[in-house]
Write a structure and sequence with these properties.
The complex is a heterodimer. Chain A is an alpha+beta fold. Chain A has two domains: 173 residues, no CATH class; 175 residues, no CATH class. Helix content of chain A is 56%, strand content 17%. Chain A has 15 helices and twelve strands. The longest helix of chain A has 38 residues. By secondary structure, chain B is of the alpha/beta class. Helices cover 32% and strands 26% of the residues of chain B. In chain B, strands 6-7-8-3-9-10 form a six-stranded mixed beta sheet, with helices on both faces. In chain B, helix 6 links the parallel strand 7 and strand 8. In chain B, helix 4 crosses helix 5 and helix 5 packs parallel to helix 6. The chains are: A alpha+beta, B alpha/beta. At the A-B interface, helix 1, helix 12 and helix 15 of A face helix 2 of B.
């Protein structure tokens, strides 16, 4: 208790210096938490992938479509429970910056495969009845103020022309980590329209989402699907939904790596600031440390004082930083709109923030504590007066 | 309770034989103490005097176990402290030496009570017993009404009283004082010297004091003079 009291009073001895150091730590821990959350957001799709879902795409490239008749052939393969087609639409809502993912899907099979998208039965029925209908996620609806019955105009990029969809259903996420920023509409509507505008592009599918009945057979079924279309004009590549999502992320991996590096650079900078603070602290107290040694206190006690003070400051800064991470992440996520479908501070991020603070607190104190422990009493006492 | 009763050990408090000490400065070896030999009896009050650089503070530091001699024999409180390692020496100091410094060397973030309590943390005494002892010690130095004051709220004389209370709180064998009145006005200095004399007379504390001040040295029973590292009388 006495030691704790001494540590806390020492920490508050230079209030402005301590306050500025705590503020620096707060900003560093907050920045670290936000950057880690951005990285987590990047991996949201991969992390929310279901193990029983596979994705079959062209072996050449994701932008090369597959014939729609593959759907029936895949469905016939042993172990396949269900198959749904999906096309990436990439329409522009008013301005290019208003990005949100849009997919043309087989509504019944696709939505059945994704039970994490919770849709009210009445709305689902309305969507099924309207070929121009759309199902949109809650976050997307909130971001752009879309309501049931609203007409959403999209300017096609991959599929040229102006398109109009009617919001018939708004799905909720089963968990906070469920992506509710997406926009789904009928693949049949897309295909019929394409058939009239560009017949050569009709009856083509971007990817097939395949649900397997036995997760343990996913690899075997993937191989069977790809074998089925080997040496055909449109060979396939089938992988788990998670692998498919990670493949997407890998295209932007350099950005993720840069963000990760920056997040740790921030911690390194605050470590340098903190180490400087503790070095100044120890230098100013040489006489006190010498006095304590003269009184019989050992190097462990002196080291404990320095480490304790460093950890107390680090903990104060990190606790405030962690507390602020939540509201700031919420504000940041809202500002980012649908760019980051899920922007949630994870438990792992919080632990990592505290772990960084612990490392900073300990590392900043190592050299000053060593110096304090090794101070020669006679020389230290001369520092008085 | 604080064992503040006259307690006269049966051995000399300090035995010094052929003690030498030198420092290395800029590649040169500077001799500070040369062949010092003398005893200090238990219960004595000795003043070490001499001009600046005569080695009196160095001698005091050696006796207090905060510096090490090059050669010779040094027994304090019946312990050959030259044989002790750093940890052993720290433990020995905690039990046997009370320090009174020129600039008090109090912890500025601790109250008078907490400063005096500091050495007792090494004794393993429970908090309540420590508190009782501290109250007695601060009462002895006349600061019962200043226990919750921080050093910055006390005068120089009061701070030195707190330092004296801290020095006696563990009932050490010897008290070492390095210019204890050097930073005080005459009236405060007289108070401190009177207090030290009382600790010597009434409690039998062995006191070794370094001072420039002949007036302060008059309080001592014996005066030892050093000149260029050599004991002159």
């Amino acid at each position: 208790m006495y030691l704790l009291k001494l540590i806390l009073r020492n920490a508050l001895r230079h209030k402005l210096r301590t306050l500025l150091t705590v503020l620096g730590l707060l900003v560093a821990i907050l920045s670290f938490g936000l950057l880690q959350t951005v990285v987590d957001a990047w991996y949201t799709g991969a992390n929310s992938a279901a193990p029983d879902r596979l994705v079959t795409r062209s072996a050449v490239s994701l932008v090369v479509p597959l014939p729609v008749h593959y759907r029936d052939k895949i469905r016939a393969i042993d172990g396949v429970r269900s198959v749904a087609s999906a096309n990436w639409f990439a329409g522009v809502y008013q301005e290019p910056k208003n990005f949100f993912p849009q997919f043309a899907i087989d509504p019944v099979t696709y939505l059945t495969m994704y039970p994490e998208y919770r849709i009210h039965p009445d709305q689902l029925r309305d969507f099924m009845r309207d070929r121009k209908g759309a199902v949109i996620g809650r976050k997307l609806a909130d971001t752009y103020g879309f309501k049931l019955g609203d007409v959403v105009p999209l300017k096609g990029t991959i599929f040229a022309g102006n398109w109009e969809f009617v919001v018939r259903a708004i799905y909720e996420g089963a968990t906070p980590k469920t992506d509710t920023s997406q926009f789904f509409f009928h693949w049949e509507y897309l295909n019929e329209t394409v058939r009239t505008r560009a017949p050569q592009r009709a009856n083509q599918v971007g990817v097939f989402v395949v649900q397997v009945s036995d997760v343990s057979r996913a690899a075997e079924i993937s191989a069977t699907i790809d074998a089925q279309f080997r040496n055909s004009p449109a060979e396939t590549l089938t992988e788990t939904e998670k692998a498919f999502q990670i493949g997407f992320i890998k295209q932007t991996e350099a950005i993720v790596i840069a963000i990760r590096i920056v997040s740790f650079v921030v911690i390194f900078i605050i470590l340098a600031v903190m180490a400087n603070t503790m070095a100044m602290t120890a230098r100013e107290r040489i006489a006190e440390h010498a006095t304590l040694k003269a009184l019989g206190f050992g190097p462990g006690f002196l080291g404990g004082l320095i480490f304790g003070e460093s950890l107390a400051i680090a903990f104060a800064g990190s606790a405030l930083g962690v507390l602020l991470t939540f509201p700031v992440a919420e504000w940041f996520g809202a500002k980012m709109g649908t760019l980051f479908p899920v922007f949630e501070v994870s438990g792992d991020t919080v632990w990592l923030q505290f772990a960084c603070a612990l490392v900073v607190g300990v590392a900043a104190a190592v050299v000053p504590a060593r110096r304090a422990a090794q101070v020669r009493i006679v020389e230290g006492l001369r520092a008085v007066g | 309770m604080l064992a503040l009763q006259p307690d006269m050990p049966q051995f000399p408090a300090v035995v010094i034989r052929h003690l030498t000490k030198s420092y290395r400065r800029g590649g040169q070896v500077v001799s500070v103490l040369e062949n010092i030999s003398f005893d200090i009896d238990a219960g004595d009050f000795v003043a070490l005097m001499g001009p600046s650089g005569s080695g009196k503070s160095t001698l005091l530091n050696l006796i207090a176990g905060i510096d090490r001699p090059d050669s010779g024999e040094l027994r304090v409180a019946d312990v050959d402290i030259m044989l002790l390692d750093e940890a052993g020496l720290a433990d020995w100091r905690a039990r046997n030496v009370g320090f009174i410094f020129q600039f008090y060397n109090l912890m500025p973030v601790l109250t008078a009570l907490e400063n005096v309590e500091l050495p007792l943390l090494l004794t393993g005494l429970p908090s309540r017993d420590r508190r009782e002892r501290v109250e007695v010690a601060l009462g002895m130095v006349g600061l019962s009404d200043r226990m919750t004051h921080y050093p910055s709220e006390l005068s120089g004389g009061q701070q030195q009283r707190v330092a004296i209370a801290r020095a006696i709180i563990t009932d050490p064998t010897i008290l070492v004082a390095d210019e204890p009145t050097g930073d005080l006005d005459r009236a405060s200095a007289d108070d401190i010297l009177a207090l030290m004399a009382r600790l010597n007379d009434e409690l039998g504390k062995t006191i070794i004091m370094v001072t420039h001040d002949p007036h302060a040295a008059e309080r001592a029973h014996h005066i030892r003079h050093l000149e260029k590292g050599v004991l002159t009388d």
